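ok so for the tutorial part 2 we go from a plain amino acid sequence to predicted structure tokens. step 1 is just haveing the sequence, like this:
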Amino acid sequence: MTVTTVADAAAQVMRADPRFAVEDAVIGGVRFRVFANAPGNLREMLRESASRHDGGDFVVYRDERWSYADFIRDTNRVARLLTDELGVRPGDRVAIAMRNYPELLLLMMAVASAGAVVVFVNAWWTAEELAYALDDCGAGLVFADGPRHERIAGFAAARGVRLVGVRDGEAGAAWCFSELLGRRAEASWPDAAIAPDADFAVMYSSGSTGRPKGVVLTHRGAISAVYSWLMGGEMARLLQDASLGLPGGDAPKPPVVLIATPLFHVTATHPLWLQSIPLGARNVLLRKWDAEEAVRVIQREQVSRFVGVPTQSADLMLAARRLSAEMPSLEYLGAGGAKRPPPQVAELAAAFPRSVIASGWGMTETNALGLTLSGPDYLARPGAAGRLLPPLQDMKIVDDDGAAVPNGTVGELVVKSPANMRGYLNDPEATAAVLWDGWLFTGDLATLDDDGFVTIVDRKKNIIIRGGENIACLDVEAAIHRHADVIEAGVFAVPDGRLGEAVGAAVQLHDGAALDAAALRDFLAGHIAPFKIPEHIWFLDRPLPRGATDKLDRRRLRADCLAAALDPNR
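step 2 — the prediction. this is what the tokens look like for a chain of 570 residues:
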């Protein structure tokens, strides 16, 4: 049978490969399509994969290396440490606050394997932001590296939080990860029962309403995303192209994956790390982003697959030019977290002729599953977000009343699949506002063409996406309003050639106030993470513009400032 369409490829893969057989299941009172034979939880996925991938390196960090067997051994030791030494029980929330270290991967899988819930907190947050998240999630146990340990130590005791130092966080810490782990001998798999729809993780996502919201993800949700991507790879090989995210042709050798995006984001945890488990991929970690170091690591480790935010792709291209470096092993260069500037797509294709250039759209709320676009389709439509990846997802574009709109008409993108979040932690109202009968209302305004390609044209929510980091305008405004000299402030996105968007703010001061941009940024540094602090600040001598309902007219404010009718004070 000749396979020429995505639908044909999906049908053939589901018929031929039992891993991707689909059945119906009712989850939370809603009927979904699910993978009938997928692992029931992440511990099962890791355990099943262990029997197939037991040779070679699995995790690499600088000169440290774990084989698959080493990683399984240490994951089990950490799981036993959690349950036997630290009293963690199924359903307990355990927070991880650190950069991209191997311990983060061990802890993530050990917590999940013990039936507890991993809480990922943003490593760039201030002490104030970290305290909010830990209060919100109720985690009584936190693993943190040096800078995060220092920030959390100031409030841990008052909140009854046990704080375990990791790596550079062990110096002077009351609880040290390496010392605790040293007490554990070889250990067997944890035996806690884990239902498919049990909670796996809480990941914090900046929404439009100010404080970050805890997105509750389940084991089935994460596995639904992983197996959808695996199926996409099988479909691509049938189609003999890369239109679904993996190179076509014969079954490839396991990829070598560079993880340089922070592991507290789904861009790194899901399509890279979790997918690598059944793929048997080698995972190479960068503690933090450094484009020239990334080039050297790609060359040294023969990295074949890199997915990061668009800024990282551009940085990698420029670093390769500076170093006059070739990276022939790099087969796949993907982007997530934000939309690439359309001209960058052709530039990357020219700079990396051996690589498939790809992009994807997903959300924390969808376990990163969503749309995908790559290869010739991407070059032909560099402004598009992609096509819906089969077979579990449904999608529609709707108007403000929730009715589907014709192709080519702008509406809100809504998606339904078992990969969607269970809800927002401690926030039933916010959950009900976006999750209806299994459909997730994404807040992205989009169009759908007759070939099934989605183009996102705007956002309904007041969100800035700076280098892949979501920043709520209201979060930044609330911090600015804490300054005594400020009457009001409005925050908005400013175009940025490298980061996509930067943070801009217009501020009205009280009469006689002498606050300048530098002093305001110094003040904000104590309240919000550095990436949220406005790069561009305009001080206004009049009230900010408002609409008929007295709401801030953010679009007009942004247009006025960007038109340079007012000179920015930097």
